[in-house]
UniProtKB/TrEMBL annotation:
It comes from the Eukaryota. PANTHER family: 2OG-FE(II) OXYGENASE FAMILY OXIDOREDUCTASE, OXIDOREDUCTASE, 2OG-FE II OXYGENASE FAMILY PROTEIN. The keyword Protease does not apply. Belongs to the iron/ascorbate-dependent oxidoreductase family. InterPro entries: DIOX_N, IPNS-like_FE2OG_OXY, IPNS-like_sf, Oxoglu/Fe-dep_dioxygenase_dom. Its cofactor is Fe cation. The lineage of its organism: Eukaryota, Viridiplantae, Streptophyta, Embryophyta, Tracheophyta. Residues 179-278 form the Fe2OG dioxygenase domain. This is Fe2OG dioxygenase domain-containing protein. Keywords: Iron, Metal-binding, Oxidoreductase. Pfam families: 2OG-FeII_Oxy, DIOX_N. One of its GO terms (molecular function) is dioxygenase activity. The keyword Signal does not apply.
Length: 330
């Protein structure tokens, strides 16, 4: 019998994906509202989450329970914030991303990495110092409401991902994988020469997982088997991607996918990323490969680190195209 080459296996996988005619969205396209009621539906979703997390590191979720009007209001609120008078935004401008609310541009501005064509309004969701009146007037109501909704969905996803690993549903939650969450509201202005820059350069997120709401403009791409693939915008969908720290604690079982955002000369683009991550104020809690996933045949591939040390290293090197995980390998 002739052996099958790696290229042939890759071609078979690509053809199988192509024949679904469902795109990346189809990797996970189930009704999350029934996962607690129907055990069979839950197991089917867990299976799809597992497959997407192991092979792609990305999937889109629809029928997730967040009302469409909340998603739309959030995108419009972020657009209003970024397109308001510059003098108003200047009052919130800072390079200190530990503040509760910050307007900034290029978090890695002073790193060797190239600059990106975009600005960001960030909310540290874990901060107890944020009061309702602290939010910008133009999006004061919708940001906290969206934050509550996306947090609830994210907690369900942490349960599904735990079960996909063969662990107790509360395992990732018990690791405090959400106590340092951050909401990043990105704005990519229309670019006169998009071929000369990137909206955001290729990178993996320094998170457990990221939940992204994108508008209709498009431009998000993921790198899969050395090929950049468009993640087509779907009005009611949230894009979920596995972060570097999830790859670290699963000992490479779940893959952190590299992604980027193209600049465009059509219209401004808005996207909202919720970073699920541990509390950056905790200097003691260590994150390493989960012991229940290890064996003689699967020894730890990464050293333990605090979440703050991982993020500090990531931010210092910037989006330079080199995986931060390399720094933590044994």
């Amino acid at each position: 019998m002739e052996s099958i080459t790696t290229d042939e296996i890759r071609l078979q996988e690509l053809q199988a994906f192509d024949e679904t005619k469902a795109g990346v969205k189809g990797l996970v396209d189930q009704d999350f509202t029934n996962i607690g009621k129907d055990p069979n539906a839950r197991q089917e979703i867990i299976s799809k989450v597992r497959e997407a997390s192991e092979k792609w590191g990305f999937f889109q979720v629809v029928n997730h329970g967040i009302p469409l009007n909340v998603l739309q209001d959030m995108k419009e609120g972020v657009l209003r914030f970024h397109e308001q008078d510059t003098e108003v935004k200047k009052e919130m401008y800072s390079r200190d991303l530990t503040k509760p609310l910050v307007f900034t541009s290029n978090f890695d501005l002073y790193s060797p990495a190239p600059l990106n064509w975009g600005d960001t309004f960030a909310w540290n969701m874990a901060s107890n110092a944020t009061k309702p009146e602290d939010f910008p007037v133009v999006c004061r109501d919708i940001i906290p409401e969206y934050g509550r909704q996306v947090m609830k969905l994210g907690m369900e996803l942490l349960e599904l991902l735990s079960e996909a690993l063969g662990l107790d549903p509360n395992h990732l939650k018990d690791m405090d994988c959400y106590k340092g969450n951050m909401l990043l509201c990105h704005y990519y202005p229309t670019c006169p020469e998009p071929e000369l820059t990137m909206g955001t350069a290729g990178h993996c997120d320094p998170t457990i997982l990221t939940m992204l709401l994108q508008d209709h403009i498009g431009g998000l791409q993921i790198l899969h088997q050395d090929k950049w693939i468009d993640v087509q915008p779907i009005p009611e969908a949230l894009v979920v991607n596995i972060g570097d720290v999830m790859q670290l604690i699963t000992n490479d079982r779940f893959k952190s996918a590299e992604h980027r955002v193209l600049a465009n000369n059509i219209a401004p683009r808005v996207s909202i990323a919720c970073f699920f991550r541990a509390d950056l104020r905790s200097q003691e809690k260590l994150y390493g490969p989960i012991k229940e996933l290890l064996s003689d045949d699967n020894p730890p591939r990464y050293r333990e680190t605090t979440f703050v040390d991982f993020v500090t290293y990531f931010n210092a090197k910037g989006l330079d195209g080199i995986s931060a995980l390399q720094h933590f390998k044994l």
